[in-house]
Write a structure and sequence with these properties.
Six copies of one chain form a homohexamer.
Chain A lengths: L10 E6 L3 E5 L11 E7 L1 H11 L4 E8 L2 H12 L3 E7 L6 E8 L2 E7 L15 H5 L1 E7 L2 H4 L1 H16 L3 E5 L9 H14 L2 E5 H8 L4 H10 L4 E5 L5 E5 L2 E5 L12 H14 L4 H15 L12 H4 L8 E2 L1
Parallel strand pairs in A: 1-4, 1-8, 2-6, 4-5, 8-9, 9-10, 10-11
Antiparallel strand pairs in A: 2-3, 6-7, 11-12, 12-13
InterPro entries (chains A, B, C, D, E, F): Carboh/pur_kinase_PfkB_CS (IPR002173), PfkB_Carbo_kinase (IPR050306), PfkB_dom (IPR011611), Ribo/fructo_kinase (IPR002139), Ribokinase-like (IPR029056)
GO molecular function (chains A, B, C, D, E, F): ATP binding; fructokinase activity
Keywords (chains A, B, C, D, E, F): ATP-binding, Kinase, Nucleotide-binding, Transferase
């Protein structure tokens, strides 16, 4: 351990949550006939953090992992992307793990080894008030409160501290059916929505909180709970937003997707990067759909996240730059 | 060798034939510029056997291979799939071998090293009457009689024994131009058709036996030779069948195929699995086209064969299950 | 599911226990800098089963795994080796998993994801009396009772049934410090030793049961608890045995080991294969040390297990056979 | 060095220029997250040479490379294709190198390490008059004069010698923006065009020399400078030609391209092979578009170049030949 | 770019210099017959930085790279290790590159593409005084002054600033014959030695500065130039040191080396980590030889650097920890 | 086909024989558990040809292969090494194939698919008199006459033509037990020895021709049959020679061998290269043992063959050249 105390450096975005080791087969087929797995990492919050960083935003991620090789892997990959990492090594629980079986090119089955993982043991002490206060924006997802009671408590505590310090709170609902029931999730997420400034949700996720409805109804329903900015992510149908009372619709960028996992996180990062840069809502959504589209062009949850320079490739027709 | 004699266990389906070591390049291009080959196995009868097993049917395969590393490979991969393997090790001849050059994504060239292979030395003694009698269905293909005189003799002997014991005989014509002429094949296959209960054929294969004609003509022509169930496999155009006098047409499942090799074998397995399960002809064909479609979604002759649970993925629109 | 009931086929050796998916880095270095993992399987009982099978003994393994891709992997690899597999699919718990980090060529760190695994939920019903009665020998290890209370109960129940039916009981102490304390293990293993006919142990493992001592003391101590055959495995120092009152010492075969994991299981299989073949104790130990030595020549827990023909390579000086 | 002087063997086509080591990532994504690079070679003139050789034409390539491992790589791969290689090893400069980052499936970024490379030090002495005189056709590209002053001098000297000896001069404009400005290139290429018999150009390249215009205008403009054969390569729109005063238009072969790099070189080779074989202009263009189309079906700059036998696969509908 | 100014954070060690992309063949043999290269990074200063970080020391590295994919690779790998990276992107020059050909297991040939690289364009402005003042120790090597005049100037400027601010200056002579002559190097390195507090050198390197002599003579000669701590690295013969007037000799740890590249950098890091932790000279050297030994156990320039916990593996005899 | 007739170019060494596609597992273990095979080529005569070429000798190889992908592979790899290849494509027989299973690091099992291969159909017309007359030396091995009657006839015919034209005849006995019996071989090889100028043999091979004896006896025995130069290759014991009546003994270079296959061919090439360069017998043997030693340092039959520059690495103690 270093004997120099660097204090808490200011950051634009602070986020935390579970990032797991991610193993996947290289080509489609049964996992049982595979002999090699690619080893990487994945987690909604670090997907957003990496995408933000590639877009030029300063980000800090607080991550709790096991004191094991996979934990080192998680920490090193996030740090590699230029995200500032605040590691919490849990000597008593392993790093979470997910295995992706690409059964066919279009069907992926995910198996988790995350019950009792290190990250499920997150506690409010892991996310100290000074770190939150040193940020301009706190980003949380609806996955963390599903991990455990203490993780849920951590999210609520962090959000409350952010509000106290005037730090903007962004929330992506990110409902994961494998972790909790729709009923339980709906109730908790509704509580979180009431405390957030910016809320991202898919149609189905919004419906968990405000009941089924048309896209515009969902946005209005969420906004009615408090958040000034509500954005409904609609995949290849674009996005619908209700921002400071203004309704905006944006179309998706037409692409041939290779891997749609991570596209929602890319969208969130595109929006937040422009928000923090002081851009207007239309510009935020413009960048959001483009960032989301680009992320679909490469396999991997976050590997395809674009830099600002790379976003312009979406407009290029020349396949080779030389 | 074990000193415990397990006797001949009953099985639902008995099959036999040549399964070869299969080497293929991973990505398209000339074989001459490749540096690595993927090592697997392939054979029409074991393709069917594996597909049947994944669909839940009990299958036994009698396989003659060389007493060498590639023979061990063949045996271990078939056994790995849960097919019961009755190995015959030939100390005097090598295991057959096929090499697949994917010259482009759409053009594959196959080179065989199967002349004088162990499997071409199959003899009637290799397929004893007790094993046939212990099965409900015997499945043979038109490849085996093309391998050698003794292999041909083995097929006819097995079919005769099956008929004697009231075991259903299924036959897939499977004409291979590299092994014998259309004339020679037509004559032999016609003889086999007269002895079969269930016959599968492509349009061209049926024409070898009954002469050119419309799809319905071909089916009628084959049925006139004896088999109560005749199914014309028509690839992405579906299938036409004449079953116990009833005409049925079924459309293919629309997919983007990755590798169509093995699709015909999958179709056969889908049909036979439902036939053995007592399902009606429409249900048999429904499962047959779906099994065939699924097999096209993954590279490899048999790796893509689906389980019953996986068949439902064809109806799913959610790319990731988590 | 097949509608044919095959009954319980007789087998020479019956064994059961946890076999896990095993992921390992291909070359030495930190796991955190690796990008690919080789996917295989490993478990002490299947290591023994596979080695026995390669030596020509008929073996049946009862395995409880998760109803997931890694469970399919475990079942297919064991079946591939010709071991008869009796699968028990647990829909409520995942397949156990181990990750091997080869930090240097000489130092390996293993991380387990096996707490609450499917195999830890083994119950006495999983190992029915008919299966035990149909065997000549039951092989158990000291790992299974460390997995859970129900797994422990299963081992004791199976051993008791074997004794009732006159089935020989073989036990490898296999102490795993990651699973339970030396105290707890010592007590349970002592109980098992009293019920076994053949006991295998390393020096340290024997000491857990009978207290520290010279090699001969340890063997005598174990034999005093009941077993007619006690074999102390001593790695590159060979083995010491007390068999039906006779003391035997055998030297190890001098080799340059590549991977010593699995060598103890190979030793056990070599001994048991000869015991079942009716060979005398000296012959059993001769084959045991040779099988153990051979297994060290190849990376992997079981991949290096030799056939009887391959054992003779230990005497060959010609590197290439052509 | 051999002590036998083989003299200067006659050849059909002589060509020279820079061929570099080429490293590329296997799958799309940032270079920064890649861990393996495929090592190959690439250069416009050897692409043409290899394509010509596969079509059956005798070709000689004069190549200047560094006296290093990558230089050996370049020489061995060109020689492997049956092209006669005249190596010039430069002990004072390294072999040129290019790195291809496939950022997405549709966007490739190329980085060069070719400034001061061995090939940029080409001098007129490297291309002796006897070698030129021993050929029927000299092929040069607009890349070489962009490498350095001495390389430019070498091209002009070689072209002049060819004209003196009645050797046909073929020129592919091949403008590379990374090497020189449009202005500088336009001037030099215009000079070369006036000296060539056969000129190939893309629309944009032709415009550099004769100013913007319709396709037919461009061809007429180039022809007005001297060459009897002018061919405008138009990618998936086919080609337009003005040959001995005759206008010809040919459509492209419809394909799904995998990698379009090298397609232009394939087109050139298809044209030249037929020209040397005495075929008429329509046949030359027919083969040119087919060779270009085939080259797009496989990844790699030259790996996909077809043999004459393989060209017929474009007409085949049977995916597997067996 | 982030709009939050984080200021200059204090660091224990500051270092700078050229880190290149590093491509190497996986197995021994000619580069010309290889088809894949492993892509990594390497540089003496980042080797030391990474080793220091793994030992728990806080380190900052200032790196100048090209604005290209390989530059991103260099930055991401150093950041991945937890070293704080201060990137300087040079839009006008490429990232340096080195290629390692393992001709045999014992003979490696390195080819460089580093002339005119981005790092050779380092200038004093790249290493601002505030960053130096914020460190406890500045580490430089004799490689940087060999890159270019401006790089040399940068080293001297940085060293002078460090001395002004009381920051300890550590210097590893690191003579590279490919970059400059022994005469030129001797003169410049001598100047640097006079300005350093801690000097590391191999026997041959020390001789460049003070003339040939016995090990003790070399140390005395260097110490006479000013540095209070002089350490002669002697590879598998250990080390000799003259520290504050005290002579110390330490033996190497006996190991079977896999790759000795990076061992000298590991040694330096081991020494400096303990120096900064306030340990006495004997302890520093003890850790230095152990860190150096460990680094030899794994392939790669820095991949094998140990953590403090891993250093204890050198004393372990148990190959598997589970 | 080219319409330019290049005539028969003079060459220093002419050789011919069977070169096969060679597939091998990358790491030791059963072939049956491997999933990838490395694809290369191998044949005694091309091993010698490649080694000669790397040492700077001009060589031509006449090779008969199948008109298939593996035949193209053989031709391209030999041509890649700078050997002039005279291809004979046999449309009626496949290219020979060998599979190497590295069962352990020290035990390799080879399986051949070469019966009825294209090369076994070599005929005297394949080796025309003009080609032989254009060479200084003809190199044949004892493998070719074992392939078939026509291949045997080809060897004798070629040797006779060489003698007529004053071309030196070199012969490596190369007995292959898998191809013919010792008796049959002994008789044929004796006939060949009487016609050769230079004979290479291992102890055992020499004994086939002249009966068992001490090394010196064997050399005398062979020399008594006619050849002026007899060299007994003794592996790691060096070599014994009887050259123009002079006895010479040379020791082997001490190395740690990685793969000894091809070492004998390297030895032959080292000797012949120096013989053709006019060096004296001692120098020939000196280079022979060094070339043989170097070839053992790299895996592969010919990949490790050294250039003259690389031979000096055997004297280097510095592992890294940079």
């Amino acid at each position: 351990m270093s004997r120099i105390d660097a204090g808490i450096a200011p950051t634009e975005v602070l986020t935390f949550g579970e990032t797991m080791a991610l193993m996947r087969t290289d080509s489609p087929g049964p996992l049982a006939t595979a002999h090699q797995l690619a080893l990487g990492i994945g987690g909604a919050e670090t997907n957003v953090a990496i995408a933000l960083r590639r877009l030029g935003t300063d980000v800090t991620w607080i991550g709790r992992v096991g004191d094991d090789g996979l934990g080192e892997k998680v920490l090193r990959e996030v740090a590699a992307e230029g995200v500032r990492v605040v590691p919490i090594l849990d000597p008593h629980a392993p790093t979470g793990l997910m295995i992706k079986e690409r059964r066919t090119g279009d069907h992926t089955r995910v198996t988790y080894y995350r019950a009792s993982s290190a990250a499920s043991r997150l506690t409010p002490e892991d996310v100290p008030a000074e770190r939150i206060a040193a940020a301009r924006l706190l980003h949380v997802t609806g996955i963390t409160p599903a991990l455990s009671a203490s993780a849920r408590e951590t999210v609520f505590a962090a959000v409350d501290i952010a509000r106290e310090h005037g730090v903007t709170v962004a929330l992506d609902l990110n409902y994961r059916a494998a972790l909790w029931s729709a009923e339980e999730a709906g109730e908790v997420l509704r509580e979180l929505v009431t405390r957030a400034d910016i809320v991202f949700a898919g149609d189905d996720e919004a419906a968990l909180v405000v009941g089924t409805g048309e896209c515009a109804d969902l946005a209005r329903g969420l906004a009615a709970l408090g958040p000034a900015q509500v954005i409904i992510k609609r995949g290849d149908k674009g996005a619908h937003a209700l921002i400071e009372g203004e309704v905006l619709d944006v179309e998706a960028v037409p692409i041939r997707p290779v891997d749609t996992v991570g596209a929602g996180d890319a969208f969130v990062a595109g929006y937040l990067a422009e928000y923090l840069a002081g851009e207007d809502p239309a510009r935020r959504l413009h960048t959001a759909v483009r960032t989301g589209a680009f992320a679909c062009l490469v396999a991997g949850d976050w590997e395809g996240m674009p830099t600002r320079r790379e976003l312009s490739l979406l407009d290029s027709t020349d396949p080779v730059q030389r």
